[in-house]
Structures are given as structure tokens and as C-alpha cells.
Amino acid sequence: MSPAVFSHGDLRLYLLALLAESPQHGYGIIQALTDRTGGTYTPSAGTIYPRLAKLEEEGLVTKTVDGRTTIYAITEAGRAELAAREGDLQGIEAGLNDSVRLIANEVRQSVQEAMKSLRADLAAAAREEQSGAASSSSSYREASARADERIASREELRRADASINEFRARVRADLRTHVAKGGLLPAQIVSELDTALDSAAHAVTAALAAAGPARGR
């Protein structure tokens, strides 16, 4: 699952902000985005170049071909739009910082959990090896099956964490951008969000109960 770093339309404005700093070729823009997100987001050429082409059509950027390299630069119209949407850009940058922190935390937690699981599996295998050849073979297979289940469960947990973080980052960025644009945020919308999240939490709890307890270790 790709990380939700930019909400819909935000990447377009952020590209203008990058080009306002200095002209860039396509690869340089991709590298700048990678660097500014600490390596947690690297857009593909298929994501960047169509947006650059659209910005060129709108007269917000120009391109200059130098041999085999195409350099993109912001126009005065592009700078004017950037200035007019300064509040939006601040909201995007705040949301971007939040998203990067969430993704970095997710990666750290995933690595820590994988290391704990690996140490536990190695310790279990060592104990099984010491218990004797005949019984060890059967017990090892059971321990191996349980270890496989734990590994699979941790991978699904990582996916669940990523889904939750993506949802949080996307909604938070949308809310920040909406308010930064001067939009209103009625209490009813927040209440509906609370109700939907509570309903989803109950559904997950019920599904976990239906899945049954883990097998004995």
C-alpha cells in the first residue's frame, strides 16, 4: 500500500513550491520529494510527468530541452498562484510532516516487532532441539507452524497499521487544508466521524472475537 503523503490536488501545488526554489529536471523533482520525506515517499515518473505537463498547459511552468534533459521552471503565473495559496501550502507541509512521522514510526515498530518475533522463534527452535530427536521432530513442526502463523499475523498487523495511518493522514490533511482555505468545519461532521470510527472499532472487535483465540503455545 502506498503511503498517503499527499491528498488529492496537493502534489500539484507542492511541485510549484519546489520549482519556485529552483528549476529542476524530472528526476531532480523525484529525488527532492524523496529527500524531504526521509525516503518514505518516492513518486514514480508516471506520477510526476503528467502533473508537470498539466502545469505547463496551464501556463504555470515552462520547460526547456537541453540535449537529453528537460528542465522545468515556474512562471510568473505559477508564482502568483503559489502566493495566492500560501495558506494551502502551509496546510500541506503540516500534513506532510505528520505523514512522514507516522510512516517512520510504523517502520520502526515493524522492525522492532520482527526482531522480537525472530528472537522468540530462534529460542523456541533451540529448546525443541534439546528435547530429543523423536519428540523434537513433532514439536518442532508444531512450533514452526505457530511461528509461521505469528509471522503472518504480524504482517497483517503491519498492513492494518498502515491502513489506519493512511486513513488518519488523509483525513487530517483534508481537514487541515479545508480549514486553511477558510472553509467551515461544523460540529456535525466531527460527530459523524466519531460515530463512524466507533462503529468500525466495534466491527473489528466482533470480527476478532469470531476468529477465535490463538492456538496454545
Word description of this protein:
About 75% of the residues lie in helices and about 5% in strands. The chain is mostly helical. It has a 3-stranded antiparallel beta sheet with strand order 1-3-2. The longest helix is centred in the C-terminal third of the chain and has 48 residues, at about 135-180. The protein is flat, with a radius of gyration of 24 Å. The mean pLDDT is about 80.
**Series of H and E elements:** HEHHEEHHHH
How many structural domains in the coordinates? Answer: 2
Strand order, main sheet: write it out.
Answer: 1-3-2
Query: Taking all residues together, what is the mean pLDDT?
Result: 79
**What would the principal axes of the Cα set say about the shape?**
flat
Radius of gyration based on Cα positions: 24 Å
User: How many H/I helical runs?
Assistant: 7
Structural class label: mainly alpha
* Beta strands, count: 3
Spatial separation of the terminal alpha carbons: 32 Å
What characterizes the major β-sheet? Answer: 3 strands, antiparallel
- Share in helix: over 70%
Beta-strand proportion: 5-15%
What is the topological layout?
Blueprint: H1 10-21, E1 24-25, H2 26-36, H3 45-57, E2 61-66, E3 69-74, H4 76-84, H5 86-130, H6 133-180, H7 187-211
Antiparallel strand pairs: 1-3, 2-3
List keywords for this structure.
single chain, 217 residues, Arc Repressor Mutant, subunit A, three-stranded antiparallel β-sheet, 3 strands, 75% helix
